[in-house]
Amino acid sequence: QVQLVESGGGLVQAGGSLRLSCAASGRTFRSSRMGWFRQAPGKEREFVATIRGNGGNTFYADSVKGRFTISRDNALNTVYLQMNSLKPEDTAVYYCAASLDYSESYVYWGQGTQVTVSS
Q1: Which of 34, 60, 105, 116 could bridge across to 79 with cysteines, CB 3.0–4.6 Å?
Q2: What is the DSSP letter of 88?
Q3: Helix (H, G, I), strand (E, B) or coil at 5
Q4: Cα–Cα distances in Å, from 68 out to 30, 48, 58, 86?
Q5: Looking at the predicted structure, is the pLDDT value of residue 56 above 80?
Q6: How far from 95 is each of 17, 35, 91, 111, 119, CA to CA, in Å?
Q7: What is the pLDDT of residues 89-110, one digit of tens each?
Q8: Is the separation of the CB atoms in 49 and 38 below 8 Å?
Q9: 3-state SS of 36-47?
Q10: With contact defined as beta carbons under 8 Å apart, do 86 and 10 qualify?
Q11: 7-20: per-residue pLDDT in tens?
């Protein structure tokens, strides 16, 4: 059974940093697109960052560009989100997602990890 398990969330002051991890199991995701999304209270889920399989091209939402970095370790079947210069508006539940091989659509989702940034 495929599972995505996020970790690394928590409470941090504005300007601080957190590193989220998403450990995948049940299959290899070497050729899958992996992504991070977030959902703040009362808002819809929004895209944060994505990284393609194999070649690893990345793309970011404008709101996090220059502050967040997505990366992956295919040997560990894990994707990371390094978040620097955090702002209160980054407060949300962060979700990891994965596609099928060579696909652009996300079909697997994690349960989420809470990130809270205090001002």
Answers
A1: 34
A2: G
A3: strand
A4: 22, 9, 11, 9
A5: no
A6: 17, 8, 13, 7, 23
A7: 999 999 999 998 888 899 999 9
A8: no
A9: EEEECCCCCCEE
A10: no
A11: 999 999 999 999 99
